[in-house]
Amino acid sequence: MIKLNKNFLKLQDNYLFSEVNTKMRQYKEKNPNKKIINLGIGDVTRPIPKIIVETMKMACDEMKESATFRGYGPEQGYDFLKEKIIKYDYNIRGISLDLDEVFISDGSKCDVGNIVDLFAKENVVAITDPVYPVYLDTNIIAGRNTLKEEVTSNSSKLKQNNIKQEEHIAFELQEDTEKNKLSGIILMPCNKENNFIPQIPSKIPDIIYLCYPNNPTGTVLSKEELKKWVDYAKENESIILFDSAYEAYITEENIPHSIYEIEGAKEVAIEFRSFSKTAGFTGLRCAYTIVPKELKREIKLEERDSSSRNNTIVSVNKIWNRRHCTKFNGVSYITQRGAEAVYCEEAQKELKENIKYYLTNAKIIKEKFVNAGFNAYGGVNSPYVWLEVPKGKTSWEFFDDILEKYGIVGTPGSGFGPNGEGYFRLTGFGKREDAESLVI
Amino acid sequence: MIKLNKNFLKLQDNYLFSEVNTKMRQYKEKNPNKKIINLGIGDVTRPIPKIIVETMKMACDEMKESATFRGYGPEQGYDFLKEKIIKYDYNIRGISLDLDEVFISDGSKCDVGNIVDLFAKENVVAITDPVYPVYLDTNIIAGRNTLKEEVTSNSSKLKQNNIKQEEHIAFELQEDTEKNKLSGIILMPCNKENNFIPQIPSKIPDIIYLCYPNNPTGTVLSKEELKKWVDYAKENESIILFDSAYEAYITEENIPHSIYEIEGAKEVAIEFRSFSKTAGFTGLRCAYTIVPKELKREIKLEERDSSSRNNTIVSVNKIWNRRHCTKFNGVSYITQRGAEAVYCEEAQKELKENIKYYLTNAKIIKEKFVNAGFNAYGGVNSPYVWLEVPKGKTSWEFFDDILEKYGIVGTPGSGFGPNGEGYFRLTGFGKREDAESLVI
What we know:
The structure is a homodimer. Chain A is α/β, with parallel strands linked by helices. Chain A has helices spanning 16-30, 50-62, 79-90, 108-114, 133-141, 151-161, 223-236, 276-279, 303-306, 316-327, 333-341, 345-371, 395-406, 432-437, and strands at residues 37-38, 102-105, 124-129, 174-176, 181-189, 207-211, 239-243, 269-274, 287-290, 296-299, 312-315, 376-378, 384-388, 408-409, 411-412, 423-427. In chain A, a hairpin with a 5-residue loop joins strand 12 and strand 13 (384-388). The longest helix of chain A is centred in the last third of the chain and has 27 residues, at 345-371. The termini of chain A are far apart. Mean pLDDT of chain A is 90; it is low at 146-165. Chains A and B meet through helix 2, helix 4, helix 5, helix 10 and helix 11 of A and helix 2, helix 4, helix 5, helix 10 and helix 11 of B.
């Protein structure tokens, strides 16, 4: 009789955004004539630059002729795209990379989820809280920890006990009886009390998820702050999973676009990047992950294994490559040609305008709420504004509240983790006229 | 200190096809003037029908206008494509399916690899041998078993001991000490002695991989033979993972295109399908997986969990959906429009011609080898011909042999598993003139 993975039962049933969409649909049905201002959008809305579309159409045409038809491409992506990425996203910031350190994929969500395959169950994972839910959910699915209680009930308990400022171990840190290794998840609170900067946890984490510019808070880490994490990871032989999907939105100096701007980071960090938010590719599917060859770790084999092999130093690049080749078959050729065109001058000009458009929306939204007496964060190096919910209300209550009162849809902070409770995410991805028409 | 997933060390270092390519490249360097006839190709070579390309170009154009731009699509795929799949691939064979039983993805390799996330480690997995390597490798990565010895050494040992006809447990069947559940992999031999039909193993498997028409052997199961497996899975509450990526190549009657042609299969089987080999989409990336809502299994919770929940019946459809939404973000809109166009009359006509072209190549190749005194199987309902290697030679020796003698490249059977030793895969995916120019 088959045994299913019971860790799925430990996940919350509803994925955050589908719940928001359901509530929005219900509101529309009840109020067919009222206008909704959707500031909950986590997706780009500006179209793809024409030069990119024309390039993709040329790639389509190649597919209809025997001489130019392309079947399976390299699982890791075509060199023509990897070369552009290295030159324009890295070399320009003084970072050198080899072609086989770049892995093209169909989305950062996939990469961030799939990377957990590389790690043993017995690891302590540190995740900033609030957080993009995928980091947490994929670790739960992989069984790296056991939930003692539901995230939601945990969240409300935390709130009651007013322990928001302290780090907490949301999930049982388990000692694997057989192997005597610790396993579990530590949530690192990021809130206004600590300026949204995660503090080094008291237990040493083996895997550290950092996303900057951050989704959902819209805040950033300075080079100095990021350096602390790189040094810490080096000292403790941890690995940092650095998600910089929003780096193109950085407007201020001294904010790192890549973790590899920090000395030594290649020995401790994997970086996730995406064309989704930088080039409007959410419907086209293209992202990439950097796994430097300097990133190596020892695998300690237990006695029963050691007859055939000794402890061994493993290149993380090599095992990610093996995973990629075994469970993935490359990105659509047409999409890859489109992504290559992202780097041409004409596309760059238009894409920068798009990003400015979203950032200006975020600025307008933030100002309107601040002028109405709210505290708001982010929105400067990020399309996300992180609003503080008025005291006494949960973020889901606030959701219902402003939907009813102003027709505004946003995303309740508690959906991003216990420390998101009391906050609310607004995004600049909507239309300018919507941002301008806001009345609060 | 991070603990990497040491199961990666248990995989063979070289992926079969890269090894073939390396050897082919080396031969070309040594013999720059000799012609190579590549019968090792596992990829389509015929271009995409013009009507599909034109449809994709229209989808590209939609992306450049605000009014028609599409960002994130549904993770499970657009209804416009799912409706066509249900109508033309299933209803036509008397099989009804709901939209939420169809999951569009970027490749069957991904789906077949990712499905292992749904199952607990403690399962006995039965895999036909020889086999598409992904089934085996993804189970090893997931740690569902421990290799006692390398697959390769295992293979040669098997050969020496002449135990080819008997099922064998290639990997240690482990009893999980804590949970008292059996875990491991059983290889079910498919060879000329049993007409390439896997026999029911002596230990009851929980998960059964079946791929028909088969890669690499090119052989098929009749409805009666497949029914035995469906009945067996039902009786033992196992799950069948049915890979029918090559169903479009079936030419004979009484061969099931879908496992759901067998009564009761919806309660026991997940089916994987792909546009890769049926429509030439290997470079465009589109596949789909059917998870019927009838497929449900109980999750037995242990005592420590049961305080909060009782044992529970879980819909496999629901947990696959959760996995899909958490770790995947949908297929390129352009590709999905292309896949939709696959079902129009004009495309169907051309695609059927392409399949006939590949099948005719396979027929020619098979005949030439048979006329030269070889035993050969498959090639009738499949683009693959499964050649028996002359006695006394390993399949890698035969590879070197015919490359040197005739300039022919094929794929050594041993790369597909211990029972592939002694066989050799040839494919009809090359050019007609290459098949016709074969001299053996």
